[in-house]
Design brief:
about 775 residues; alpha/beta; Aconitase, domain 3; Aconitase, domain 4; 3 domains; 6-stranded mixed β-sheet; globular; binds FE3-S4 cluster
């Protein structure tokens, strides 16, 4: 066989050879069954099927059960995921998993009093370590104990660390962050998921995904001058819009692919999240080979090369939709404001600003982030900055640089790029998300003040970067951001306009240049990784913490039907997971189930009084906030149910929307229809998601009724249950309700939760 290729330098005892062998075997079965050419995306997805023989496979229709190779979590979403994993009682995660401390670090662009007037990456990092100590302590101790690799604050942004260390061609990964698809630049099928999915996979359950459609993007030609990989995805976003990729994997192919660096492919896949795609993927090629070698993974490069037939599309593979782009004809793109699919070409941008009355004066330029912080990006941006320095001028506006990882930071420092950025007036922020996720302490603009900024990030929805809804954020390549920051004016077009140097002479910026990979190799910088140390570690959670709370496993089913549960709220109209568990300021409690439960259903409309967060307590007769009334019932030992309308629980897959009702004593959620993911999440927490067999029965249930659910002692897949309702005057009614539990899920219900069920047979 081929030389052994470890999964990563940090996991020397696990081998990609085994993963490829399993993939080949599964693909053999699937090929026989489907008997048609496969796209690259299909090969990787079907190569990870739990049951390649029995699984139904129809793109856009069947639900696939998959076995991902690994899990990655960022520190905000990891908190509840890890807490849930701990509550399962399992000793270690079933697949290699990592935690990345990147989301909780603020970036400052001006001296701050509470930080001794210091600012920039070092000060920001020190400040974050102080304010988030309990979260970091918890994650690092739990990581050590349960076998999860822990990347300390300062190590870098999850997606960059994954690309540098863990991504491999043909692999499959899930990550609790929307830009997980970044690893598609290295040929991985990497999908952003909610915490509930991460918990399942860590606990050894298969991961469910609707068989993705495949959108083929054929690239021809070559990028030149001011063009960069960012323009490709900005252009594709303009074509497909923010919804155009939903339910699909975007697969790139064609001769143009070989003209893009591996990290450039990462940028394209990263921002594929902006079109709603499941993920984006590039087939294995020489550029990926070179990147693997440069990041110390030559054995993987060689192994992938030997396996390359499975790492690209078959001749004649069919796509559900195709787009063709000629890179030689592409113009630099600038997208925004307020939505990433509003694409403008550089030559038309000044006009668009004027027509739409968007502020043309630039107030800040920000480069780096998970999207665009490769060595190549930094070199190209620095090549623009250097021209300004040579002409004796500096950035006119605050200009920040976010290295994606400690390795990038150390390498660009060694190679003199940080020096250039500093000299041109830039601020190098910590290796973390910072302003990309709204962690930006920005003092020079007041909230509500209309202003424009330009970034090399991916997302630009209102208030995303600085919390100010009047900030117009535009998205483009780092090299263009640098040029704009030097000009201080968004109507500037570096392709034709000139700047004035310190000597009064006009200068014209030359197109950026830069090496794809560092000639002297990467400098790893400071060690920021903590390896798992299963065994004696104690998980640190302060019992007085407001941010973290260990979870108690939920109680198993008592073997009886539900009797006389109270209707807590009969919801009218739209009820998304945001109505059920609001985000915003509540997110600071995401690791503390009891505290965050105080937001339960506070956004849902009560059909009885047409108000939000006001329901009548059926025992006291008084109106109160929904969570308070639920707590009162729970304290009295009374069970309750929620009644809802159509598509209940649509929106993001937030697991808190299912955990909170379970925690506060719910038994069932009875609605006209469910959003599928939420329905599954409720089952995972041991609740009963039920639908009216006859939707008109919604009207039979009054807001002050008592609900009994019959048939649980003979709970079977496909068999309806019966609701018996009791009005306050004693009158009763009865109707059938449907449920979609399979055998496995009925076991979850009986055990009290999916995790209890997993823990039971694995402990
Ligand atoms: Fe996400 Fe930006 Fe961080 S897209 S991972 S918030 S750098």
């Amino acid at each position: 066989g081929a030389e052994k290729a470890p999964l990563s330098r940090l996991e020397p005892d696990q081998f990609i050879n085994d993963r490829y062998a399993a993939m080949e075997e599964r693909l053999g079965v699937v090929r026989k069954r489907l008997n048609r050419p496969l796209s690259f995306a299909e090969k990787v997805v079907y190569g990870h099927l739990d049951d390649p023989q029995g699984q139904e496979i129809e793109r856009g229709v069947s639900y696939l059960r998959l076995r991902p190779d690994r899990v990655a979590m960022q520190d905000a979403t990891a908190q509840m995921a890890v807490l849930q994993f701990i509550s399962s009682g399992l000793p270690t995660t079933a697949v290699p998993s990592t935690i990345h401390c990147d989301h909780l670090i603020e970036g400052t662009t001006a001296p701050q009093e509470d930080r001794d007037n210091s600012f920039g990456g070092q000060a920001d990092l020190a400040h974050a370590i102080k304010t988030n100590k309990e979260v970091y302590d918890f994650l690092s101790s739990a990581g050590a104990k349960y076998g999860i690799g822990f990347w300390k604050p300062g190590s870098g942004i999850i997606h960059q660390i994954v690309l540098e260390n863990y991504a491999f061609p043909g692999g499959m990964m899930i990550g609790t962050d929307s830009h997980t698809p970044n690893a598609g630049g290295l040929g991985m099928c990497a999908v952003g998921v909610g915490g509930a999915d991460a918990v399942d996979v860590m606990a050894g359950l298969p991961w469910e995904l609707k068989a993705p459609k495949v959108i083929g993007v054929k690239l021809t030609g070559k990028l030149s001058k001011w063009n960069s990989p960012k323009d490709i995805i900005c252009k594709v976003a303009g074509i497909l819009t923010v919804k155009g990729g939903t339910g699909a994997i975007v697969e790139y192919y064609g001769p143009g692919v070989d003209n893009i660096s591996c990290t450039g492919m990462g940028t394209i896949c990263n921002m594929g999240a902006e079109i709603g795609a499941t993920t984006s993927m590039f087939p294995f090629n020489k550029r990926q080979y070179d990147y693997l070698v440069a990041t110390g993974r030559e054995p993987i490069a060689k192994l992938a090369d030997a396996f390359r037939e499975n790492l690209r599309a078959d001749e004649g593979a069919e796509y559900d939709q195709t787009i063709e782009l000629n890179l030689s004809e592409l113009e630099p793109q600038i997208n925004g404001p307020f939505t990433p699919d509003l694409a403008h070409t550089l030559s038309e941008f000044a006009e668009a600003l004027k027509t739409n009355k968007w502020p043309t004066e630039l107030k800040a330029g920000l480069i780096g982030s998970c999207t665009n912080s490769s060595y190549e990006d930094m070199q190209r941006a620095a090549s623009v900055a250097r021209q300004a320095l040579d002409a004796g001028i500096k950035a006119k506006v605050p200009f920040t640089i976010t290295p994606g990882s400690e390795q990038i930071r150390a390498t660009i420092e060694r190679d003199g790029l940080i020096d250039i950025f500093n000299k041109v007036g830039g601020t190098v922020l910590a290796n973390a998300c910072g302003p990309c996720i709204g962690q930006w302490k920005r003092t020079e603009i007041k909230k509500g003040e209309a202003n424009s900024i330009i970034t090399s990030y991916n997302r630009n929805f209102a208030a995303r970067n600085d919390g100010n809804p009047a900030t117009h954020a535009f998205v483009t390549s780092p090299e263009l951001v640098t040029a704009f920051a030097i000009a201080g004016d968004l109507t500037f077009n570096p392709e034709k306009d000139t700047l004035v140097g310190a000597d009064g002479k006009e200068i014209k910026l030359q197109p950026p240049t830069g090496d794809e990979l560092p000639a002297k190799g990467f400098d790893a910088g400071v060690e920021t990784y903590q390896a798992p140390a299963p065994g004696q570690v104690e998980v640190k959670v302060d019992p007085n913490s407001s941010r973290l709370q260990l979870l108690e496993p939920f109680k198993p089913w008592d073997g009886k039907d539900v009797e006389d549960a109270l209707v807590l709220i009969k919801v009218k109209g739209k009820c998304t997971t945001d109505h059920i568990s609001m985000a915003g300021p509540w997110l600071k409690f995401r690791g503390h189930l009891d505290n965050i439960s105080n937001n339960m259903l506070i956004g849902a409309l009560n059909s009885e009084n047409e108000q939000v967060n006001s329901v009548k307590n059926q025992i006291t007769g008084e109106y109160g906030p929904v969570p308070a009334v639920a707590r009162d019932y729970k304290a009295r030992g009374l069970e309750w149910v929620v009644v809802g309308d159509e598509n209940y629980g649509e929106g993001s897959s937030r697991e808190h929307a299912a955990l909170e009702p379970r925690h506060l004593g719910a038994r069932a959620v009875l609605v006209k229809s469910f959003a599928r993911i939420h329905e599954t999440n409720l089952k995972k927490q041991g609740l009963l998601p039920l639908t009216f067999a006859n939707p008109a029965d919604y009207d039979k249930v009054g807001p002050f009724d008592k609900i009994s659910i019959k048939g649980l002692t003979d709970f079977q897949p496909g068999k309806p249950l019966t609701v018996v309702g009791k009005k306050p005057d004693g009158e009763t009614y009865e109707f059938p309700v449907n449920q979609t539990f399979n055998d496995n899920q009925i076991e979850w219900f009986k055990a009290g939760s999916a995790l209890n069920a997993m823990g039971k047979d694995k402990k």
